[in-house]
């Protein structure tokens, strides 16, 4: 298999992700690591909560990986996404892409995170000191 | 036909539940479903947008709903 | 300090690099991991040897980091480069860039590896079964 | 003046040493140095290109060389 796509409730590990996509034919790996910021639009964030429609989220992430394989000469694609409660500095998502040459890895990785944010049924709630909001839900 | 509707994110808050049951005509479309839901849960109309998924695929307004389809309300996603 | 630039003789560690660039203000990290491929132009590679003009290499990498800070709103930049003998699958270079928003991290990271390959005085010798060659030296 | 020249990568192979000493006029330029080196080590002319660094900075052909400058021959780089 050249994809590993998982929703996880435990801490994501960057080294494991790099190790999984690496092979003797690999010349370059691009890794995107999302992290929980302490502010959003200038307002202090206490924590985030992620919820997923799990089966469909996996299937949409697999589609994105297949689109990336169709567009760039990449070798392996890994997408790990957290669900549940995340504190500041924790990692909601890791995307790792290996390729013989780096341009393909960079471009596919950026395509995957950009598309994931548009199509994959995962929702993020920001918890502030004085309330909470589902991100992007309201106009 | 009775159809169960799964709800996620803000839709779960609007429905007050992660699953609601709606009574639909046998040849109902996604459009018909949205109309009924928005009547029963007017706050749905205040979302930036929302989609309906049928059996884990995004559906179009004209698509028909069949008994035993898995239907889910997909408010604007915000993963990553 | 918002840069960490090192030439190292021991194995590079991706997790350490990500941990170093991450801060509570970080929203996204892009990491480029170079790896030693088992072939070059269809010919089997046995191992690589990297040599650096150390003081100048550090100073040129620092310049590249400063150019990246001038062009993109990024927070921290890490460049770790190996010297010495590397086997297939080992990591010659890790570049990690953190930013509040991912576009800046992606663009700065790609700029840094592209520029590093053009200007930093580090040389790579490919060792084949039947000989060896300094990469890019001959026309 | 006697100037030590550091060599790296293929330049080290061409010189047969990581450091050679060249006798230069006091007002010598990078161009003068390259001319002398290419005379003494003709294989330098077969490189794709090469640069000279003075005190850890890339130098131009017209730049002057001073006693105690740290001079290095920089064949095409291939890091990363």
How would you sum up this structure, described in words?
The complex is a heterotetramer, with 2 copies of chain A (139 residues) and 2 copies of chain B (80 residues). Chain A is of the alpha+beta class and 139 residues long. Chain A has one domain (3-129): Molybdopterin biosynthesis MoaE subunit (Aldehyde Oxidoreductase, domain 3, Alpha-Beta Complex). Chain A has 3 helices and 9 strands. In chain A, strands 3, 4, 6, 8 and 9 form a 5-stranded antiparallel sheet that branches. Chain A has a 4-stranded mixed sheet with strand order 1-5-7-2, sandwiched between helices. In chain A, strand 8 (122-128) and strand 9 (131-134) form a beta hairpin. The relative contact order of chain A is 0.27. The model of chain A has no long low-confidence stretch (mean pLDDT 97). The longest helix of chain B is centred in the middle third of the chain and has 11 residues, at 30-40. Chain B is of the alpha+beta class and 80 residues long. In chain B, strands 2-1-5-3-4 form a 5-stranded mixed sheet. Chain B is 21% helix and 26% strand. Chain B is globular and about 35 Å long. Chain B is built from 2 helices and 5 strands.
Index terms:
heterotetramer; A: 139 residues; alpha+beta; Aldehyde Oxidoreductase, domain 3; five-stranded antiparallel beta sheet; four-stranded mixed beta sheet; elongated; B: 80 residues; five-stranded mixed beta sheet; 5 strands
Write down the domain tally of chain A. 1
Estimate percent helicity of chain A. 25-40%
* SSE ordering of chain B: EHEHEEE
How far apart lie the N and C ends of chain A?
A: 40 Å
Topology record:
The complex is a heterotetramer, with two copies of chain A (139 residues) and two copies of chain B (80 residues).
Chain A: E1 3-8, H1 14-21, E2 28-34, E3 39-40, E4 43-52, H2 54-71, E5 74-82, E6 84-87, E7 93-99, H3 102-119, E8 122-128, E9 131-134
Parallel strand pairs in A: 1-5
Antiparallel strand pairs in A: 2-7, 3-4, 4-6, 4-8, 5-7, 8-9
Helix pairs in contact in A: 2-3
Chain B: E1 2-7, H1 10-15, E2 19-23, H2 30-40, E3 51-54, E4 57-58, E5 71-74
Parallel strand pairs in B: 1-5
Antiparallel strand pairs in B: 1-2, 3-4, 3-5
